[in-house]
């Protein structure tokens, strides 16, 4: 077996493994979204719906899914592997460290793209704009536009990856990711 075949097998296996790590995170977030949607339909919407400032707060709910996914990806793919000791084992694969990082980041980007595709397909509705920061009929302090939230999810993904690589403790990584994401 030549070197290219070994590398190809290692890359294919690593991509498969990374996807397997992310599937429980994705499934749990889909479950939470479904549970909240069911509860909203059973109980007639949001309990804060009567307050004018929050009257359209349900429009934000689907936009949180990719952001929460982005927050969890760095913590799962880096932090969890560091805690379990499998990150050291992965370094023994016949791959350069930059390839290992690129594969982890590439898998994360693929999951973010899938998350956004699902939001745009199922949950967004007509209130969210591609061109306006916040539609005029929607007077909120937090922007309600796809570009803003897509950039926010990418920023949270980068912050999560950086914090997970930087801090060995998962708790410190979460705190650092939250601080970086708030910037």
Describe this structure in words.
The chain is mostly helical and 183 residues long. 71% of the residues lie in helices and 0% in strands. It is built from six helices and no strands. It has helices at residues 3-43, 61-84, 86-90, 97-123, 146-166, 170-181. Helix 1 packs parallel to helix 4 (97-123) and helix 2 (61-84) packs antiparallel against helix 4 (97-123). The longest helix is centred in the first third of the chain and has 41 residues, at 3-43. Mean pLDDT is 78; it is low at 47-55.
Look at the helices and sheets and give the structural class.
mainly alpha
The major beta sheet can be summarized as: none
Gap from first CA to last CA: 49 Å
Poorly predicted residue ranges: 47-55
Order of helices and strands: HHHHHH
Percent helix among the residues?
over 70%
SS summary, helix count: 6
Rg, rounded, reads 19 Å
Instruction: Using the alpha-carbon principal axes, give the shape.
Output: globular
Strand content is under 5%
Strand runs, count: 0
What is the average per-residue confidence, as pLDDT, rounded to a whole number? 78
